[in-house]
Specification:
With about 375 residues, the protein is of the alpha+beta class. It is about 50% helix and about 15% strand.
């Protein structure tokens, strides 16, 4: 993706912006939160997204998708991030859709990819078991049992876990501790005996769940990728998720900047518009330059995935780490530049402050990715 969008990409971005502004403004997110909606998203809105082809945006045409790639999905996620749109785009389409395309057998692809594209299935990745992102710190066990496996363990921060029909569970079939070997991914129906799901309330009102698996039986055909060798597949999936989340965060940060800029151009203090104060101008300029840098990083990372470049892991950590830091900065600057009212629920900027705190840590925060980036570069 170049710095200038193609005509097709610009059309997708414009249509996504118009649709989300009309059908999913921030007020819709507030309504879900204030009404304590049990699903945490609008199935009707999701159906309209599916009808637009967004659920199949990554999926090849042979499986009923649009095959528009990560660049296309990134543009949609950026627009969705501007209004904190609640949808299964990240969990089902970006994360689990990528897992199936990268590691699924032909039979698994034929079974699930058309269902994802048609909006007939919702999926979630069951990975995290600790307070901090640690992809190989897996204690969930999958033991050989007859022709299949028996899985037991607990997962936390499972995005959209409470609305999913199908899980992709990361379990250990060998090794201990944080061994990179011995990890396997399994397809597990949420209605399988032994699966217990409890919705959690995140501070930013994003959908997540805690999931417990107690002697859950699956067949050998539930294995996604290779037995004991799932780490490589998992990292590829996570890198796509990291880049997609970076695109979403970019949209959220852009919205905070736009709202803050509009506010300081109108708010008066001592008879003077506060946007005329040089100190605030400098802070706004810092926010702008951070956004432009993040935009370049995200666009490069999205392009690298579609072009199957060798440096995707490096760019994924760069994008997730950098945009997390920038969103953190911009959200807090937005609240401060709004003054006291920025801390009230009446103004939207506080919603983005909460979102920045949560999404910053999803799939690894700045410290995790700074360390990973250094290791990938040989340090």
């Amino acid at each position: 993706m170049g710095m200038v969008l193609t005509e097709e990409q610009q059309l997708l971005k414009d249509s996504a912006r118009d649709f989300i502004e009309a059908k999913s403004p921030v007020t819709a997110f507030r309504a879900l939160r204030d009404n304590d909606d049990p699903k945490g998203y609008s199935p009707d809105l999701w159906k309209e997204m599916v009808d637009l082809g967004w659920a199949g945006i990554l999926i090849p045409e042979e499986f009923g998708g649009l095959d528009f790639g990560m660049q296309g999905l990134g543009l949609v996620l950026e627009e969705a991030g501007k209004t904190l749109t609640a949808s299964p785009l990240v969990s089902t389409v970006l994360t689990c859709g990528s897992a199936l395309m990268l590691g699924g057998t032909q039979a698994q692809k034929q079974e699930f990819l058309p269902k994802i594209a048609a909006g007939d299935v919702l999926m979630s990745l069951g990975l995290e078991e600790n307070a901090h992102h640690a992809p190989t710190a897996i204690s969930t066990k999958a033991e050989k049992s007859g022709d299949g496996y028996t899985i037991s363990g607990k997962k936390t921060f499972v995005l959209d876990g409470h609305i999913a029909n199908q899980l992709i569970v990361v379990a250990r079939t060998g090794g201990t501790g944080e061994d990179i070997n011995g990890i396997t991914l399994f397809l597990v129906p949420t209605n399988a005996p032994g699966v217990s799901i409890q919705r959690t309330t995140m501070v930013d009102s994003r959908n997540a769940a805690n999931i417990e698996l107690n002697n859950v039986s699956v067949g050998a055909d539930a294995v996604l990728g290779s037995v004991d060798g799932g780490t490589d597949l998992l990292e590829q999936v996570l890198d796509r998720a990291r880049i997609g989340l970076a695109a979403e965060m970019l949209g959220s940060a852009q919205h905070v900047f736009d709202e803050t800029l509009a506010y300081i151009k109108e708010r008066k203090q001592f008879g003077v518009v506060i946007g005329q104060f040089q100190a605030l101008q400098h802070r706004a300029a810092k926010m702008f330059t951070e956004l432009e840098l993040c935009r370049s990083v995200v666009m490069e990372a999205l392009t690298a995935v579609d072009e199957k470049a060798n440096n995707v892991p490096l760019l994924a950590s760069l994008a997730k780490g950098k945009v997390s830091e920038a969103f953190h900065l911009i959200a807090r600057e937005g609240v401060q530049m709004h003054g006291g009212v920025g801390m009230t629920d009446e103004y939207d900027v506080g919603l983005y402050l909460k979102r920045s705190a949560v999404v910053e840590q999803a799939f690894g925060g700045p410290r995790y990715h700074s360390d990973r980036y250094a290791q990938l570069e040989g340090f």
